[in-house]
Known about the structure:
The protein is α+β, with helices and mostly antiparallel strands. It has helices at residues 25-28, 65-75, 86-92, 127-135, 145-149, 200-203, 205-212, 214-230; strands at 8-12, 19-24, 95-97, 103-105, 115-116, 125-126, 152-158, 164-170. 25% of the residues lie in helices and 14% in strands. The strands form three sheets. The protein has a four-stranded mixed beta sheet with strand order 1-2-8-7.
Amino acid sequence: MNGPIREWVTIPARTKERRRYQFDVTFLTSRWTCIFGAGCQGVYAEPAAELVHGCCSSGAHASDKADRDQVDKIARKLRPEEWQHIEIGKKKGTWAKVGKEEWRTRLVDDACIFLNRTDFAGGPGCALHVLALRRGVHFSETKPAVCWQLPLRAIERAEDDGSTTVVVTEFARDGWGEGGEDFAWWCTEAPEAFVGEDAVYRSLEPELRKMVGNDVFEQLAAYLDARIDKAPPVAHPAEVPIELGRSRTRHHPVHG
């Protein structure tokens, strides 16, 4: 393989459950930040920054029934000045079935029903994010799981010994399925998005804590703090291919 190798660290959960977390050090120590409305080109086959859709064009797939129910409950708290498509949501519902057991937020004019467009008085953006700001809570309390986790992705892998490895990495194109290859632009590949003030493991600390738990996060943060002090990380993970093979030869266990 040409180019630098992506760096990983593996942290075992200090519980009775046989579970470990494998973290993408290269991405988590980068300066990625969301540039919605500030250069984001969207997820169409052609760049479309002027639409200010971000990654909301395809809607959000529910992780499970609890995810759907939570969003429905939260949607009832939205006000007309916060949600452009509130009447459609009340009349038709916020979810549409797209498979035998698969649900996605309903689409309105080729984008998520919760996405306020550029002609909305309150401005473009996610209505559920607006609600979180009004209520003073983190948006993970109001958005579908896939939305608040992005650009992070957790992939569970069953091991031969009966344990489970959870790979925590960036939500790359392959996270979207085959359609991801058709995007003209994707933020975790674009240097324009790696302009944040803090490393990802600090800027996305609330999301990571919710995904892996406080104890594992504290171990991760301690390791990455020391890692950054030793040597600067790769600036743009887009230059480093993701490898999700079974080999653990490049993983560095951290034991608390």
